[in-house]
Structure formats: structure tokens, C-alpha cells
Amino acid sequence: MADEAETEQAAVAAGDEGQPPVLSKSARKKLQKQERQAERKAARKAAEKERRRADVERRRREWEEALAAAPSDEARAEMVEARRETRRERVGRRAEERGARAERLRRAADGAGQKVVLDLEFADLMRPNEIHSLTQQIMYCYAVNGRSANPAHLWLTGCSGEMATHLQRIPGYDKWIIEKAAKPYLEAFEDRKENLVYLTADAETVLDDLDMSKIYIIGGLVDRNRWKGITLKKANEQGIQSAKLPIGNYLKMSSSQVLTVNQVFEIMLKFVETKDWKTAFFHVIPQRKRGEAETGDEAKVSLDDDDAAEGAANGNVFEEDLDKGFDEVDDDGDEELEDEETIVAKKRQCRRENGEAGDGPDGVAEATPAGDATPQAEQAKESNNNGAED
After folding, report:
1. Cα separations (Å) of 344 from 20, 85, 133, 202?
2. pLDDT, tens digit, for every residue of 67-122?
3. pTM above 0.85?
4. Exactly one of 119, 202, 223, 359 is catalytic; which is it?
5. How far apart are alpha carbons 81 and 237 in whole angstroms?
6. Each residue of 144-177: b (16+ CB within 10 Å) or e?
7. Is residue 269 within 8 Å of 150, Cβ to Cβ?
8. Catalytic: 223?
């Protein structure tokens, strides 16, 4: 410890003299780890990009070969029409799914759903790539809420400025069946302040159950742990209740003790469905991060000091789920038949407009065509009962 302290002091002194700072041993190891993760991520992205390109080319070639092998012009016309009909059926099924999803979300908004607020008042504390990561997590929250049999009544509060600009770039965002408020949650729920409960790992109260009369708040903050305890401090200053999920009663976390916004939200949805915290935690928290089931040891898991950067580097949000997010939030009912390349191009354009998606340690990995998960995502899904990777 003394040697490391002396090294850090030497680093400060070197910096004062205009020389490059000397990193401590732990800092060098951390930097080397980040560099290795970045290299592996770049290699995975390049391999996946090549795999997708080869897959698209293979399907195109097979289709052209099948058309060329047709015995007559009539047969070729029948093949083309059959393919169009298949696409029409697929569009029809998606339209039905959109209708059913919209109905569930409307029922939730009419009072059937648990009220959950994503507090977006922290945008001024985040870097642009962190705001982008939070935007992706919000999109995933909306997508998984739509798929839920018992969706929550989801609110976005403090939705203004750069945060609102990023959200507006999501295809179909204006048609989301969700409550959006530029004002803070204290103003949005000024007549129900006594029902507000801020979820934060630093709270003393453990949440045993979800109360339909309560309004649970999840802090929308991606900060790489720069602002520790900020949500509990905010709740205390505002005089509202705070609580933490009972993770320590069921799990002993084996690695990084960080949950993303979408993971906390999905845990709540799963609990509403099963009324079982252990099932909810095991469904969402990946196997690599959870130890053996525990009954008493309290594991501190951060709900507010969210590190989406680590999650993104390790497949935090499944890539096919991001594509499902794009498919599900784009609720415009448009039945125009588009080929797969056009759809993929639109998604890539959206990601370019939103920022550095997948281009840095804080970005979210580039999504694949809908339903076409990467091998890493598939492996994670198998080991985690299709839960969101962390």
C-alpha cells in the first residue's frame, strides 16, 4: 500500500513537471484490461459484420439460383408471388402483434399496470456516449414492456434537452404508448408525493413486495460510478421514500455489482408476473455475475451508479433484443414490404444519428438483423434462461 501511494505521489509530481504521469500498478492493469476488452470487442464486431454480409450474400445467391433453375417463366412468376405472399403474411402477423401489444399497454396506462418512472434528470452529469447508452436502455425497456403479459405503466420524467433529442431519433418514438414529461417527477406527481419510492442500492429499506399504489422510480444515470449515492441523496433531500431490491437475500454477486436501468425494470416486470424475487433475479441477472443462492448475506448492487459501458462490452443488451426494440417501437402500421437490406440500413442509420453506437467502450454493440443473434448472445441466453445479459 505504501509503495502504491508513493507511486501515485510520483505520478502527480511528474504531472506537475510536465512529464507523462507514471501509472500505478493497479492503474496499468486496469488500462491493459480495457485495451484487451476493446480489442476483443473490435474483433467480434468485425467477425459479426463479415458473417452478416456473407449470410445476406448467400441468401441472395440461393434465391437467384432457384429462380434460374425454374422450368418456365410461369414457374418463376409463381415463385416471386409466393415470396411476396410470405412477406405479406409476416407483415400481417406483425400488425396483429402490434395491435395486441398496444392494447396491453393501454390497459396498463388505464390503471392495470404497476407505475414505474425512469428519472431522466441526470443528463447534465453524463457524457454524450453515456446518454446514448441510456437511450438504448430506455428503448429496450419499452420493447420488453410491450412483450410482457403484464406491462407496467411506464413514465419518462425530466425528459428534455439532449436526452429528449436522443430519444426523438428512435424510429416510432413519437407513437410510443408511454407517458413523457419534460417536468420532474415531483411536479408530475405533486398530488401523490407520499406514494413515490426511489429505488437505490444505498437505501436501508428492503423492498419485499411491489405495491400497486406506489410509484417506483429508477434513476436514469450511466456514469461509470462517478456519482456514487446520488439517487439516495436526491430522495432524502426531496423527502420521498427510498428502497432497494432484495437481491442480497437470494444471490451472492460473484463479480461486478452493477445493474443497468433495463435490468432493474425487467426484474420488476418478472416479479409482477411470478411474485417470486428469486425467479426474477435468476431470469435477468446473468449466470457469470451471480454466485450461489444466499439467504442472509447482503450483496450491494448499484441501481443508480449504472455502468452501461461494462454491460455493452459484455453483451449487456442482447443485440437481437435491440432489433426487436426497433421493430416494436416503430408502431406506425406501415405495411410496405421492404427487403432485409433496406431494414438493416435504416437501423444502422438510426444508430449513426444517435451517436457512437458500438464505437467505443461506452457504446452499445451494433445490432444484428431481427431474430439473428450473435453466437455470444445465443450462448448467454442459453445459460441465463433468455434473460437480459449484464
Report:
1. 44, 21, 20, 41
2. 899 899 998 899 999 999 999 999 999 999 889 899 999 999 998 999 999 999 99
3. no
4. 223
5. 65
6. bbbebeebbbbbbbbbbeebbebbebbbbbeebb
7. yes
8. yes
